[in-house]
Specification:
Elements lengths: L2 E6 L14 E5 L6 H7 L4 E4 L3 H10 L3 E4 L5 H8 L8 E4 L4 H11 L3 H4 L1 E5 L3 H4 L8 H7 L4 E6 L9 H5 L3 E7 L5 E7 L3 H11 L7 E4 L3 H11 L5 E4 L5 H6 L15 E4 L16 E7 L10 H9 L8 E7 L9 H24 L3 H13 L14 H15 L4 H9 L5 E8 L16 H14 L9 H13 L1 H9 L2 H6 L4 H14 L6 H9 L5 E3 H14 L15 E3 L3 E5 L2 E11 L5
Parallel strand pairs: 1-8, 2-7, 2-8, 3-5, 3-6, 4-5, 6-7, 9-14, 9-15, 10-12, 10-13, 11-12, 13-14
Antiparallel strand pairs: 16-19, 17-19, 18-19
Length: about 600
């Protein structure tokens, strides 16, 4: 796809004209007024934004803009689109609330696809969020139905190489500034994130200047605030579902007006992109990523660092990334991933051929479930072609992990392209083991399962999903513990309490129930994948004991062998493992061979 350029001559100059239609637009700098340009453009528009705070901020500035988020009904949308006093309708919605927009147009018998322009803002979220935001798929599917549509982001994407965009004749437009727009960065890494943070704060010449931390972990945010003893002078910005956790721990100043900075400010990932933070201050921005204690805090610098810095429309004083690295982190290179996808896809097609040629109903049922369970299934469309958004997400996720294996990789992630970053200072520190460290809350799995069960039933999720708030809560609980959520979907709360939230007892109860209801032909796969954990080592004795329990519980007439674990997981070669101070022969488990439900 040929690249076309729109040049911006001077810094702080806004875009003019009209957002091009049927285009992939890559703006190399943030804050150039692209979204505002569309809001003011004389045409009907629907703008998809990744998060609610973005919409709330834009609605405050533009009186004729309708923000569609949790709580806005189809009736309100109908009233808006029928309001003749508004000549050009501007609707801004999250992916989750898009269905309400669609419903409103259907009830009014209006031509949504022919009379409105659709803009996917921050379109890089299509790949980064697609695996856990199931509701993002509807606007993606509808995207191709619009006569006029475009995608825009300040984060580089690979969309221009997707065959589907080439098929529809999309243009690839790059908004190119004519000044040095590289982000000046300071990099820290060590064996002690807390000491790195203290070192950074000590280096500030003016201790009164505001500091903004971007950390995608509420637990890590709380631990850092406590360690620095800055609770009373800190602001925390997070999702609604995290507020109770903070207030229960005595934290103050949660989600105050975003333009009113405290001395120290902490933001979770919903504030990493698209949100405008307009303040007279030019804060010091600090990203913290901990590969060991909080893997969800890892970001790919090329994809997110410039986005984070760009939140502050009046500029920043400095940008610092502090990282806790993990030499044992495992990842696949792009070449390895592409080979894996090709091989898995080939095997999947062969398996489907067996399914199509089978004549016995029982065989077809087993083959169908096998097709749905193999890992490659979730990366394919109904016609067995690759879902490019999901495969791109996989490539990005593996690339991100690679950045945090060692200091060289971390620095390289900021030095691959001088157009984007200029490294000012590098600090690869080593602190004495006796130095104070961040004390993360010790995970109490049983207590966490209890909290999830309480939230699940308190929100009536067992009765079905009817609202965006319920959908968001369900997805959040599934990210915390997919297994216990599934248990909640099969059993009532009293039964789970009776089992004392014990994972092994609940696993076996779940398997037996599934078998009894004849809704699953692979119960052993479910049991094994839930009783063993990827990345952990098990002795041969532990493996055979656990497998024999599963076999006995399910009435399988078989004596387990330690090598049976290879049927369910990719494993290391037979090796020596340490268990309770003793060295025994066993295996380390890697990825499951089947897709867990």
């Amino acid at each position: 796809m040929k690249e076309e350029f729109i040049y911006i001559e001077h810094e702080n100059k806004y875009l003019t004209g009209t957002i091009p239609v049927n285009a992939i637009i890559y703006k190399k700098v943030t804050g150039i007024g692209a979204t505002t340009l569309e809001i003011k453009c004389p045409r009907n528009s629907i703008i998809i934004e990744p998060n609610t705070p973005v919409i709330e901020g834009k609605v405050k500035k533009h009186v004729n803009l309708l923000g569609v988020t949790e709580g806005v009904t189809a009736s309100q949308i109908i009233s808006y689109i029928q309001n003749k006093a508004i000549p050009y309708k501007k609707i801004m919605t999250t992916p989750e609330s898009y269905s309400k927009v669609r419903k409103a147009f259907s009830l009014c018998s209006l031509d949504l696809f022919g009379s409105f322009f659709l803009l996917f803002d921050e379109c890089h979220k299509l790949t980064s969020d697609v695996n856990y935001r199931g509701t993002i798929t509807l606007p993606i599917e509808d995207f191709w139905k619009f006569k006029e549509r475009s995608l825009i982001s300040a984060t580089i994407t690979n969309f221009a190489n997707y065959p589907v965009f080439q098929k529809f004749g999309f243009r690839h437009i790059i908004i190119q500034p004519k000044w040095d727009y590289s982000l000046k960065v300071n990099l820290y890494s060590s064996n002690n994130i807390l000491q790195d943070v203290k070192s950074f704060l000590d280096s500030l010449s003016n201790k009164e200047e505001k500091v903004c931390f971007f950390i995608n972990s509420i637990d890590l945010i709380m631990a850092l605030i406590n360690a620095l003893d800055i609770k009373e002078v800190s602001h925390t910005y997070c999702a609604e579902r995290s507020i109770n956790k903070l207030t229960n721990k005595g934290f103050l100043n949660i989600n105050p007006p975003i333009e009113q900075l405290g001395q120290y400010n902490f933001y979770t990932s919903r504030y990493f992109s698209a949100v405008d933070i307009i303040t007279k201050d030019k804060p010091h921005v600090v990203v913290i990523s901990d590969a060991i204690k909080a893997p969800q805090t890892l970001i790919d610098p090329i994809l997110e660092s410039r986005q984070i810095a760009g939140r502050f429309r009046n500029g920043i004083s400095s940008f610092t990334h502090i990282a806790g690295l993990d030499s044992k982190i495992q990842y696949k290179s792009p070449e390895e991933l592409k080979t894996w996808l090709r091989e898995q896809h080939k095997a999947y097609i062969q398996l489907e051929t067996f399914y199509n040629s089978a004549t016995e109903e029982g065989v077809k049922q087993v083959m169908k479930e096998a097709l749905e369970r193999v890992e490659i299934h979730k990366y394919l469309e109904e016609d067995n072609s690759f879902n490019f958004f999901k495969t791109e997400n996989l490539l990005d996720a593996e690339a991100t992990k690679s950045r945090y294996q060692n200091w060289e990789n971390f620095v390289l992630s900021y030095s691959m392209d001088e157009e984007f970053f200029e490294i000012e200072e590098q600090y690869n520190n080593q602190y004495a083991p006796t130095k104070e460290k961040i004390q993360m809350p010790v995970a109490n799995n049983r207590m966490q399962r209890k909290e999830i069960v309480d939230k699940f039933f308190a929100a009536n999720l067992d009765k079905g999903i009817e609202t965006e708030e319920q959908r968001n809560l369900l997805e959040e609980l599934q990210r915390l513990d997919e297994f216990i959520v599934e248990v909640c979907q099969y059993f009532d709360k009293d039964f789970i309490i009776q089992k004392k939230y014990n994972k092994q007892q609940l696993t076996l109860a779940l398997i037996k129930k599934k078998v009894k209801e004849e809704c699953l032909s692979f119960p052993v796969i479910d049991a094994v994948c839930k009783l063993f954990r990827c990345g952990f080592s098990y002795s041969e004795e532990d493996i055979t004991t656990t497998l024999n329990k599963v076999y006995a519980e399910l009435g399988i007439q078989k004596d387990a062998k330690a090598t049976d674990i290879k049927d369910y997981f990719e494993t290391s070669p037979r090796r020596t493992v340490k268990q309770k101070g003793l060295f025994k022969k066993g295996y380390k488990l890697y990825a499951p061979k089947f897709l867990k439900k």
